[in-house]
Amino acid sequence: MAKSDFKKFIIYSLFLGILILPMVGFPGRTFEAVRAFTIWGGIVGILALWLLNKTVRRSGVYQRTATTFSPLKNTVLEKFYKLPTKYAILALLIAVAIYPLLANNYMIDVGITCLIYIVLGLGLNIVVGLAGLLDLGYIAFYAVGAYSYSLLNLHFGISFWLSLPIGIIIGAIFGCIIGYPTLRMRGDYLAIVTMGFGEIIRLVLNNWDKLTKGPNGLLGMSKPTVIYPAFTESGLEWVVYSLRSLHALYYLMFIIAVLTVIGVRRLDNSRIGRAWVAIREDEVAAELSGVPTTWLKLLAYAMGAAFASVVGAFFAAKLSYTNPNFFIFMESCIVLCIVVLGGVGSIPGVILAGIVLIAVPEVFREFQDYRMLAFGLAMAAMMVLRPEGLIPATRRKRELHETDESSPED
Amino acid sequence: MKQMNLLPRIEKMTVKEPILVLKDVHTYYGNIHALKGISCDIPAGDIVCLIGANGAGKSTTLLTIFGVQRATQGEIRFKGHPIHRLRPEQVAAKGISQTPEGRQIFPRMTTLENLEMGAYLRNDKAEVAKDMEWVFGLFPVLKDRTRQLGGTLSGGEQQMLAIGRALMSRPELLLLDEPSLGLAPKLVEKIFETILEINKMGVTIFLVEQNAHMALSISNRGFVMETGRIVLTDRAARLLENEKVKKAYLGE
Predict the structure, then answer these.
(1) How far apart are CA A85 and CA B37, in angstroms?
(2) A294 touches chain B (CB under 8 A)
(3) Does residue A379 register a pLDDT over 90?
(4) Which of A23, A81, A277, B50 falls 20 to 30 Å from A130 in CA-CA distance?
(5) Closest Cα partner for B11 from B204, B219, B220, B174?
(6) How many domains is chain A built from?
(7) Residue A187: exposed, middle, or buried by beta-carbon count in 10 A (0-12, 13-18, 19+)?
(8) For chain A, first and last CA: distance in Å?
(9) Domain range enclosing A130
(10) Which residues of B touch A396 (CB under 8 A)?
């Protein structure tokens, strides 16, 4: 056992003890030692396993087993990696599509939430991952979408489908409104200002009683409907089917998510995507290369906001209810965490992180109190162990391969 | 330096049409008056250099020409057309190109992608490919590094990449901001030789340099800048002989 590792283990354990014992030990006014020490002990146990694993690996046992099994492992892995990505995508699509048939209502609901956050993550990924603009108020656009649909539907009776494009436009306009004054800002300043804008929107929704009914929220929006032709007693007729069931809503959200992935992917590979990356890398150099930076940064905000607006409208329609407290700052943080955890700029990463950060806490619902603690620990651990994210952006890798094939060897 | 073929070329007798004209240009950074009325002509086909101390406003002059910094007063004309109200991308489209100070390439893009960014405003793929070959001809090192990330290139290679990227827009006027910054003397010579070569292809070059001796030795004309003003304008060869310049910038 390496000495430095053991030292690290002791330090980490004690540090976590100082951090966790008071937090976990005081659910009420008295210190519950058993409970606190069980949880701490569990975490220390995990750390000990990590230490053990490291020690064993160092002793070379793994290598010996690896040499025995490596030919088999290599062939299996090779075969696996050789499978075209389209099979993986197809498998994922089928899995997501049949999920509601196997799940109960609660699980479907969690699935919908996952899909919502995945789309939000992908939208924010445009702003943060591609254009490199740190946005801490992203959830405001989600709110704009939700309230646009709610107000349009309640006051003018506009249907979900018709209000979608209107919502997208309103969202994009809000994106530009927030984006414009921040164009000259960078990094931390930008983050603070966007956070402020996010809160302003929430506070306006909370206090503009006449329009938004304040903290009571808006109630009674109609669900999305589908119209299809069918033969009835009176011949061929258009039947209006309201998407009330969770299954139907799940599939609607599924379609929105798939369209988002396709859209974001196309953006990523486009000229605009390339220009965004250039701005992220070096704004002055991008400007000198003839990239219209002002316009493209606004476009990034507008596009990101448009995606959030779509899911916002869906969210309001699904619940038939919305209120300003859905759109607190914490939500922006979670979406940002999804982007960072998944790997900034990586679409599969964002999808995986969306599932991890939304579904896994649901599994541990009983530990409600420590969810945020675990969340924070997981984020901190990620940033130390794998700062590039769960699935780092493959954009560069893929392009490297493309140049590999296209450049003739001389 | 004498062993190299970098001697100042004799200025032609005919008066050349200036490709770029600056007339009484003022620029502010907030409250700081950075350019206090710059006027100069840059003849087409020449190499012109702007020398001066740190903070004299050399880089600001270039950024103002490109429209990154707004000229609050005065006029900038490129081939007779006023460009001081244009945005950077519009200036780039007119045929001006610039390398930023301090070799600002895109560090997490490959060499190839960096060069492609230089041709961002162009749509003629075949011609772009030709120009890429031309850049690789000028800087053969880059050809071996096409798939390497810009940030992992050496200092000299990054400077070559920055110049190469600026050339990818096929400019008529190339603005170079301190191409010798932080490079070994040998590399500096190499870069300046290439600048001469680029100039021979018909690209007018406006060079900003702290390395005054090197810059003047390849230029036709030179401007000396002090605290936001041009204090001296002359043929480069004459500036090299000027006592004041010698003392202040050539360290003789």
Answers:
(1) 60
(2) yes
(3) no
(4) A81
(5) B220
(6) 2
(7) exposed
(8) 52
(9) 85-405
(10) 108-110, 149
Inter-residue contact B248 to B226 (CB < 8 Å): no
Query: Contact at 8 Å (CB) between A341 and A352?
Result: no
**Side chain identity at residue A101, one-letter code:** L
A6: which residues sit within 8 A by CB, 6+ positions away? A51
Locate the DSSP E strands across A146-286.
218-219, 225-232, 235-242
CB contact, 8 Å: A32 with chain B?
no
Please, what's the largest Cα pairwise distance for chain A?
Answer: 85
Query: Between the CA of residue A10 and those of A14, A15, A20, A352, A378, what are the distances in Å?
Result: 6, 8, 15, 33, 19
Distance CA B237, CA B252 (A): 16
pTM: 0.80
The interface predicted TM-score of the complex, written ipTM, equals 0.83
- Pair (A233, A271) in one structural domain: yes
Q: Do B120 and A407 touch (CB under 8 A)?
A: no
Beta strand spans in B11-166 (E): 18-29, 32-43, 47-52, 71-78, 81-82, 96-99
The pLDDT value recorded for residue A34 is: 80
Q: How far apart are CA B97 and CA B116, in angstroms?
A: 14
Indicate if A299 and A171 belong to the same structural domain. Answer: yes
* pLDDT tens digits, B116-137: 998 988 888 888 999 999 999 9
Provide the pairing of β-strand B221-226 with B47-52.
Answer: parallel
| Chain B residues near any Cβ of chain A (below 8 Å) | 66, 68, 87-89, 92-93, 97-100, 104-110, 112-113, 116-118, 120-121, 146-147, 149, 165-166, 169
Encode B66-104: b = buried (16+ Cβ within 10 Å), e = exposed.
bbbbebeebebbbbeeebbebbbbebbeebbbbbbbbbb
- CB-based contact B147 A289, cutoff 8 Å: no
**Structure tokens, A61:** 């046992």
| pLDDT, tens digit (0-9, with 9 covering 90-100), for A273-305 | 999 999 988 888 898 988 998 899 999 999 999
Residue A410 lies in a domain: no
Distance (Å, whole) CA A181 – CA A193:
9
Percent of chain B topping pLDDT 90: 33
Q: Please report whether residue A145 resides in a domain.
A: yes
Asked if residue A95 has pLDDT above 90, the reply is no
Confidence at residue A396, expressed as pLDDT on a 0 to 100 scale: 43
- Which chain A residues are within 8 Å of B146, Cβ to Cβ? 403, 407
Q: What is the pLDDT of residues A335-354, one digit of tens each?
A: 998 898 888 888 888 998 88
Whether A144 has a pLDDT exceeding 60, the answer reads yes
Q: Which residues pair with B110 in a beta bridge?
A: B149
Show the tokens assigned to B24: 């009484």
A381 & A238 share domain = yes
| DSSP tag of A180 | G
Asked if A207 contacts A324 with a C-beta cutoff of 8 angstroms, the reply is no
* A142 and A240 fall within a common domain: yes
Of residues A335, A361, A362, A341, the one with CA closest to residue A353 = A341
Q: Looking at CA atoms only, how far is residue A283 from chain B in angstroms?
A: 9
> Among A280, A235, A240, which Cα is nearest to A393's?
A280
